[in-house]
């Protein structure tokens, strides 16, 4: 079974235009993400998928593999599917967000491995403990699981609601996914579903259509880059680590 790790990377960003090319301790964000992703042992290949020539040039500069995609894709999943179409020999596609410079390579390996093990799951994703400060934060997506560590539901609201004390610890969803290639190509063509539109959470489409999503748990929470403050935190992290 062959595994591909694909990193969708868009130039346009509402809060941080040109985000993939912003510097973090002397290296671009996309280079930081790529360097973490290639440390994973299970994937056979790592590819940046982009719609912008400057990102393509940057990936080629630092020696990475890159594929140009259509600029018209509404979501990263659509961009991912376009690249997956070009690699028919790969069975599982791991989607690493292009703004996660601290992604744990072990998480990439575990995501790919859980799909190899769980034949009935079409995709897999990640959850981490939810902080109390995030209970009412609608940008912190929550997830509840069944007894087989598969997703029951994702929501921007607090789930499960603690009518009494929590019988299970609340979990926060981390947006890294692995897909079976055949499912990914089909999934990208499906119409948006009602709950997906309501919560503005793309992964609900799979649940509403009856597919199973495996969930692995991790204690670590990576820094996603959405703001100048996130860039500053990542910069401080890499400077501390690289000055040791």
Could you characterize the architecture of this molecule?
- The protein is an alpha/beta fold and about 240 residues long.
- About 30% of the residues lie in helices and about 25% in strands.
- It is built from eight helices and eleven strands.
- The protein has helices at about 30-35, 55-60, 75-85, 105-115, 180-185, 195-200, 205-210, 230-240, and strands at about 5-10, 25, 25-30, 45-50, 65-70, 90-95, 125-130, 140-145, 150-155, 170-180, 215.
- The strands form two sheets. Strands 1, 4, 5, 6, 7, 8, 9, 10 and 11 form a nine-stranded mixed β-sheet that branches. The protein has a two-stranded antiparallel sheet with strand order 2-3.
- A hairpin with a 5-residue loop joins strand 8 (about 140-145) and strand 9.
- The N and C termini lie far apart (about 40 Å).
- The mean pLDDT is about 95.
**What is the residue-averaged pLDDT?**
93
Distance between the termini: 39 Å
| Helix count from the secondary structure assignment | 8
How much strand content do the residues show?
Answer: 15-25%
Global shape: globular
What is the count of β-strands?
A: 11
Helix and strand sequence: EEEHEHEHEHEEEEHHHEH
Work out the helicity level: 25-40%
Q: Cα-atom Rg, whole angstroms?
A: 18 Å
Largest sheet data: 9 strands, mixed
Helix-strand makeup class = alpha/beta
| Sequence stretches where pLDDT stays below 50 over 5 or more residues | none
